[in-house]
Structure formats: C-alpha cells, structure tokens
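Batch job 17 of 40 flagged for manual review because the log was empty.
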Amino acid sequence: MDCPPVVALPVQGSDALFPVRRVYCIGRNYAAHAIEMGHDPDREDPFFFQKNPDNLDTSGEFPYPPKTQDVHHEAEIAVMLKSGGRNIPVDQALEHVFGYALALDMTRRDLQGIQKKLGRPWEIGKAFEASAPVGPILSAEEIGHPDQGRITLTVNGELRQDGNLNQMIWKVPEQIAYLSEYYELAPGDVILSGTPSGVAAVEKGDEMVVEVEGMGSLTVKVV
C-alpha cells in the first residue's frame, strides 16, 4: 500500500517547503464575530477544533463541497511553528514561530449548526477536503510577528469582512501557550488564529480575496 504524501506548504522567496503535522483552529477569537454567531464576546477560555493537514490547499481554487447549501468564508492568518514543547510560557511563545500565511477557514455552516444543536463535534462542518485555502508562508525573519494590521475579505469585489489583527481576543502567543498546556506542540504544527465578523455564504463562480496589511493578498475562486 502506498503511503500518503506529506503535506508541505511553499515558503515565499525560497525553494523550501514547510511540512505540516497538525492543524489547530481557534473558535470565536474576534469579539464581533462571537456576537454575530450568537455568543458573549467576554474573554472566556479559548477553545479549538482541528482540521486535517491535507485540508490545507494552495491551488487557489475552492471546490464547492457536497451535502451543504450554506458554505461560509472565514478570513484568517495561519501561524506556522518551527518548534514546540509543553507548557510554553507566553513570553517565549513567538520563539517557536517560523512564519505566517493568509488562509481561509471554509465552513459548511448548515452542517456545523446541526452539530452544535446536538452537542456533537464540528469536523463534518469544518474538516472537509480543501476547506483551508492557504497562501505562501512569509517567514517571521522577513515580516516579524504581525499583531496589528487590517484584515479584509472581499467577494467579487464586495467587502464582506473588515477587522484588525489587534482585535484578537486571544493573541497568538497566548494561543500557543494555551495549546501547549493540553498538547505537545511540535515543528510543522499550524494554528488558524480566528476570523473577524462578516462571515457569509459563497457560491460557485465567486472570487474571494483575503488581504492583510503587510502580508499581501490571497485570491481563491469557488469552483
């Protein structure tokens, strides 16, 4: 039996590839998004779900998935770890970051909603094929550690999401530290760091563009 290939993401300006181990995703990490999803934006303990490494997709296309009539976009930045460990202090967390990339957490919202009502895991709404379009990795050596800057998403030129990285309830170092209390983080781990408000449905033929100040843009076509 052939072994599945290792998922590896391109690093901008280099021939190097970043092999992916795990993908953690934080939920409701911008206050306005928490409100639009019907939740209190107060700073409660963070919670995470997972996508699969092969859900990350660099093709620039998002195949509309089956068994849904309501697929939503969620613009995010992805955090790529070069090292890990357990119980990482917040003030040392960024030492473990290799770089960042623009990404989307595509969601079968109708299926996720059913799971929420039943108290079941979200994976059927979150962890499907090509559900995490992602751009090239920008190394922290080049761009530093972005903790502020406008993040937007347009669909066919219409502005849908508009926020700022400084609006994260749980900042990137805190996310790393918190995860490391429950998991042993390692090189190749990816964290999708949350989305601002304005999530909405897409249809086949739509063109989504994610932009983050200082990080460029990512264009993804719904096919």
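Reviewer: the log was empty due to a logging misconfiguration, but the result itself is present. The two ends are 32 Å apart (CA to CA). Unflagging and moving on to job 18.
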